[in-house]
Design a protein that fits this description.
The chain is an alpha+beta fold and about 300 residues long. The protein has two domains: about 5-20 and about 40-165, 2,3-Dihydroxybiphenyl 1,2-Dioxygenase, domain 1 (Roll); about 185-295, 2,3-Dihydroxybiphenyl 1,2-Dioxygenase, domain 1 (Roll), CATH 3.10.180.10. It contains five helices and 17 strands. The protein has helices spanning about 5-20, 60-70, 120-130, 190-200, 250-260, and strands at about 50-55, 70-80, 80-90, 90-100, 110-115, 135-140, 145-150, 155-165, 185, 205-210, 215-220, 225-230, 240-245, 245-250, 265-270, 280-285, 290-295. The strands form three sheets. An eight-stranded mixed β-sheet has the order 2-3-4-1-5-8-7-6, sandwiched between helices. The chain has a five-stranded mixed β-sheet with strand order 10-11-12-9-13, with helices on one face. A four-stranded mixed β-sheet has the order 14-17-16-15, covered by helices on one side. Strand 2 and strand 3 form a beta hairpin. The termini are far apart.
C-alpha cells in the first residue's frame, strides 16, 4: 500500500510548483512560471533569487501589494494550499502563501528571502557551525530544486535555494517598478552578522565606517552588491534581526502615503542611500516588513509617468 503524503509534504510540493518549474509528466492544473525561464545551469551564490510572503490574510495581501506596486496575480490551489504568484509585466516577482497560525511567533506575516547556493546541504553544515539553526531541513521540491530554511545567529529567517532551473538573470533594467533591489539585513551587531554571511554565502564584505562602528556593510559577489547589513533601526519593534527586501518605486513618499491609506504603517522614514537613492521601510496591515526604494533619474534613464 502506498504511503499517504503528509499535509506538510503537500504544502512544500505546492510551494515548489508555484515558484518553480512545471513538467509535462505531471497532470496539469498548475501551469506556472519557472524560476529561470529559459532554464540554465548558472548558480550565482548569494544572489536573492526568490521571495515568498507568508501572510495571515492572503486576499488582503493581494489587494495591498497589487494597489501599491501594480502587481497582477496568478492563483493556484492544490491539496488545501492557496498560493499566488505576483507578476510585473507577466514576469514573476514573488510568491504569496497563506500562513497557518500555530503559535504567537506565526501571528505576524513575514517576507522570506531565498538565496542561491551551489550545495544546500554543505551550506547548511557551514551555517550550523557558525551558530545558525534549521527551521526546515533540506528537501527536494518537485521541479523547484533543493532548499532549506534557516535562522542566523540573530534569529533572522532566510532560505537557501539550489534551483533545478538555474538562477534568473540579473535584472537588465534596475529600475523596473515593482521589482526588487538588493535586500538589507537589519541587525543588532552588523559586523558579526556580516562575518556570518561571508562565511556561509561566500560574500566579499566591505564596511562603511561610522562613529562607533559601521554604518553599512556591503555583501558582494563578483561585481554585484547582493545585499547589505545595517544597524536595526529603533523604529522597528522586532525581537530579532530581520531581512528586508526593497521594491523599486517612482516615489517613496507617494508609495508610503498610499501604504498608510491601505492600512500599512511607516516604520522608518525616508533615508538617503548610496548613489542618491532614497528608501523607506514599511509594514503591511498584517505585520510583514518590507522596504521601497526610489532611484534618482540619472542612475537609469527611464520615462516617468
Amino acid at each position: 500500500m502506498s504511503r499517504k503524503p503528509s499535509h506538510l509534504s503537500l504544502r512544500y510540493a505546492a510551494l515548489g510548483l508555484a515558484a518553480g518549474l512545471w513538467a509535462q509528466v505531471h497532470a496539469a492544473p498548475f501551469d506556472v512560471p519557472a524560476l529561470a525561464n529559459p532554464p540554465n545551469t548558472i548558480h550565482q551564490v548569494g544572489k536573492l533569487v526568490w521571495l515568498d510572503l507568508e501572510t495571515t490574510d492572503l486576499p488582503g495581501a493581494k489587494h495591498f501589494y497589487g494597489d501599491l506596486f501594480g502587481w497582477s496575480y496568478h492563483d493556484y490551489h492544490a491539496d488545501g494550499v492557496d498560493y499566488t504568484v505576483a507578476l510585473v509585466d507577466n514576469h514573476p516577482v514573488a510568491g504569496l502563501v497563506r500562513r497557518s497560525i500555530v503559535n504567537d511567533a506565526e501571528r505576524r506575516s513575514a517576507w522570506l528571502p531565498f538565496f542561491s547556493v551551489l550545495d544546500v546541504d554543505q551550506t547548511v553544515r557551514l551555517a550550523l557551525n557558525a551558530d545558525a539553526h534549521i527551521r526546515s531541513a533540506p528537501e527536494d521540491l518537485p521541479l523547484r530544486g533543493r532548499q532549506a530554511r534557516m535562522t542566523d545567529p540573530e534569529s533572522a529567517v532566510f532560505a537557501l535555494e539550489n534551483s533545478s532551473s538555474g538562477d534568473p538573470p540579473d535584472d537588465p533594467n534596475p529600475r523596473a517598478i515593482g521589482t526588487w533591489g538588493s535586500p538589507a539585513l537589519l541587525a543588532r551587531d552588523p559586523a558579526h552578522e556580516g562575518v556570518f554571511y561571508q562565511r556561509v554565502l561566500k560574500y566579499t564584505v566591505v564596511g562603511q565606517p561610522a562613529d562607533g562602528g559601521f554604518e553599512r556593510i556591503r555583501l558582494s559577489s563578483g561585481t554585484h552588491e547582493r545585499a547589505n547589513v545595517r544597524l536595526l533601526p529603533a523604529g522597528i519593534a522586532t525581537p530579532h534581526a530581520e531581512w528586508i527586501s526593497f521594491a523599486r518605486v517612482f516615489s517613496t513618499a507617494d508609495t508610503a502615503r498610499r501604504a498608510v491609506k491601505l492600512g500599512g504603517r511607516i516604520l522608518v522614514g525616508p533615508t538617503r542611500e548610496a548613489h542618491g537613492a532614497t528608501s523607506t521601510i514599511l509594514e503591511d496591515p498584517t505585520g510583514a516588513v518590507f522596504g521601497v526604494i526610489e532611484l534618482p533619474p540619472e542612475v537609469v534613464k527611464i520615462e516617468t509617468p
